[in-house]
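We were asked to recover a plausible sequence for a given structure. The inputs and outputs are reproduced exactly as logged, with field labels preserved.

PROBLEM: sequence recovery
POSITIONS: 359
GIVEN STRUCTURE:
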């Protein structure tokens, strides 16, 4: 009878151990700087709670006050960095909405900042037939913050110049042939500019049909945009297309350089000698302050000689960018009416085709 009693005692001992009061883990004191987020997806590798650092409500109130002052003072980069860090601390809905609004406001202010001024000029003006067209692009930092522009790197095209080039050819029969094309050139290397800093880049645009020819002279009007692949302003990325102001490059036949010493006088001599090519070349060499005197000389030389008058009409058309269909009387009637103020706000090359003047 001892075996059943012993077996029964063993069973009772096991039950006492397994069915007794359970020992639970000690309670964790809530931490004001910590919140608990349980996994919401079956894809989570563990079912253990995850802990994220956070801050009390008073901390977010003070941080928002300081960030708002930074944005008002124009200190956008530190303000944005701190705002993103505050969002990572899992604020409440009210603070989250306020931080998102502040980030949007700071980014908007950054986009309003001026970044670069870009202008273009001739590397050589005038140049000769047979030479490639080269221009200089000047970049100036007007943002008040450091600027970086990404250049061409291995495996990447980098920043790009997109240039519109209009080639106009002026011949001795007063004909103007205009050809427009688009040329792309890469920024060769990274560009870093401090506030108010400047740099110049020389772009070789190629021949652009500037070969030897019978026309009197040619002009190349160049304008366009700089399209940076990366434009970093004060450590923040911008996605701007920088407009480049217009410039004109002139090209002439070799051996005509002497006409540049006094173009107005050379115009008069060319008309007297019926040298049409010399007339057009000298006209192309006229500088801005000499245009009125050159037009005076050309209109005075209109005497009904069709052999040279045709070239005079072409020269007048180039200088004024208007035309009267080779009507000498119309030119003589029109010019005295507009002479005093015509060149006050005149900008050469802004018309694709010569305009018809009002009679």
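RECOVERED SEQUENCE:
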């Amino acid at each position: 009878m001892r075996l059943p009693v012993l077996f029964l005692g063993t069973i009772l001992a096991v039950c006492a151990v397994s069915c007794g009061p359970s020992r639970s883990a000690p309670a964790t004191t809530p931490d004001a700087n910590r919140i608990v987020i349980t996994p919401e997806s079956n894809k989570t590798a563990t079912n253990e709670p995850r802990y994220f650092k956070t801050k009390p409500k008073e901390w977010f109130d003070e941080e928002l006050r300081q960030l708002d002052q930074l944005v008002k003072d124009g200190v956008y980069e530190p303000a944005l960095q701190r705002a993103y860090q505050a969002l990572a601390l899992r604020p409440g809905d009210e603070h989250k909405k306020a931080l998102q609004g502040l980030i949007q406001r700071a980014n908007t202010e950054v986009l309003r900042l001026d970044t670069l001024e870009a202008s273009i000029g001739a590397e050589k003006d005038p140049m000769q037939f047979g030479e490639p067209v080269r221009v200089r692009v000047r970049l100036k930092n007007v943002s008040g913050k450091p600027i970086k522009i990404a250049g061409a790197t291995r495996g990447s095209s980098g920043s790009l110049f997109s240039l519109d080039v209009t080639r106009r050819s002026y011949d001795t029969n007063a004909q103007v042939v205009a050809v427009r094309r688009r040329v792309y050139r890469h920024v060769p290397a990274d560009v870093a500019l401090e506030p108010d800093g400047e740099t110049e880049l020389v772009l070789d645009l190629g021949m652009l049909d500037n070969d030897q020819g019978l026309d009197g002279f040619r002009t190349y009007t160049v304008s366009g945009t700089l399209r940076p692949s990366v434009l970093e302003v004060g450590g923040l990325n911008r996605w701007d297309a920088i407009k480049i102001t217009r410039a004109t490059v002139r090209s002439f036949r070799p051996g005509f350089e002497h006409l540049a010493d006094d173009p107005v006088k050379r115009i008069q001599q060319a008309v007297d000698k019926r040298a049409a090519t010399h007339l057009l070349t000298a006209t192309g060499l006229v500088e801005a302050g000499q245009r009125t005197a050159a037009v005076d000389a050309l209109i005075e030389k209109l005497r009904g000689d069709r052999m040279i008058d045709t070239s005079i009409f072409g020269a007048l058309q180039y200088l004024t960018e208007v035309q009267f269909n080779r009507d000498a009387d119309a030119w003589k009637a029109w010019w005295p009416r507009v002479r005093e103020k015509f060149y006050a706000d005149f900008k050469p090359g802004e018309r694709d085709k010569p305009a018809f003047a009002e009679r």
